[in-house]
Amino acid sequence: MTAFDIAQIVAFTLCAFIAVAGALGMATTMSMFRSGIFLMASFLGVAGLFILLAADLMGLLQIMMYIGGMLVMILFMVLFMHDPGGAMMAAMPGMMAPVERFFSGGLQQGEGRNGDHADMHAGNGEAKEADRENRQNGANGEHHAQHDGMQHGGSDMSMNMEGTHMDDMDMSMVTPVRRIAAWLAVAIGVGLGALVLLRPSWPTVTRHPDPRSAEAVGMLLMGKYMIAFEGAGFLILLGIVGAVLMARVERHPDNGGRDARVGRTDAPPQIAPDPVIPPSPDERPNEEHASEHHAVAHPPSHRRPA
Amino acid sequence: MTIPLGAYLLVGATLFAIGVYTIVAQRSAVMVLMGIEVVLNATGLNLIAFWRFVRPDDYSAQIFLILIVTIGAVEMAVGLGIMMLLYRQRRTVQVDSYTALRG
Questions:
Q1: Angle at A30 between CA B44 and CA A189, to 5 degrees
Q2: I need a labelling partner for A73 at 20 to 30 A (CA). Which of A82, A118, A260, B29 fits?
């Protein structure tokens, strides 16, 4: 085993660990902002794996597209979220599974509820024991820790639910089905891993790819796959126009002509009481009658209250 | 070639499982989108690993990965646009609070 092989193994282990641990932290931390940063670590690990696989162009594309583009969008949207720092959940560590507690350690805590504290401490002792057991699991322990933790977190949650309102569920970042989701994820992971390990006889070849792969990719992109390339460009154009059209501001108070014709959900404007004729209780409000008097009294901008 | 193909496929399988867990278990739409991104990453990793170990002289896999990344970016932009719209209407983007179509 040469030094090159050792370096390759070290690089693979490092990149795979960063990718998997980043994804796990993204899935389990309570702070949404921290999820974004963990996701960036996962992207970086996968980019390192791409470079290790001699697809350096794809590694650079991964970094530029995912981290430079999508992660900026994600972190922008996180700012709109309810409780992006996870402060409310950080105040209730009893509701978290051990993996979640590990990845959300040191979060700034919000206001805890007094009624939950007794349950919380009771749950903490059990959770520590479960954590200790999980550490002994050894290889492939991360998955089991996650799964055991989900089970445990679920029981804690049901315990807390008995004494408090439904509001506690709304604080949580995860749905009540997270135990089932953890089982499902473990089943999928184990199934795929078993498929990989039980049938390892792929027809692999030993020759190395051309190190100047970027040139070949560019030639393919402009030659054989030109229609797909142009189609992707057209799709991006459609996506940009669609996203802007959907998310644009609906009302422009200074210029009613720019108001969007899509996504209008407000009720039709109220017909104001007639200032000239006082409304009598037996008279049914007649729209035609009212608008006739109001065409002069109210300019059109008043019909659409901001 | 010291690292076998199976190692990369195992990493891809683990990433896929974590992404599926995130998509199912998280209630905020941003987190669901993050899970979708992780699943797309796992797909790309498998694709590039198979390219490297099975057909290293045919670069179609890299073209395919470019298309996957493109579609992922468009999906993210449109998804975030939809979330902006939903947030403006109801002040929440938690996916389990939109149950108007439940039978």
A1: 40
A2: A260
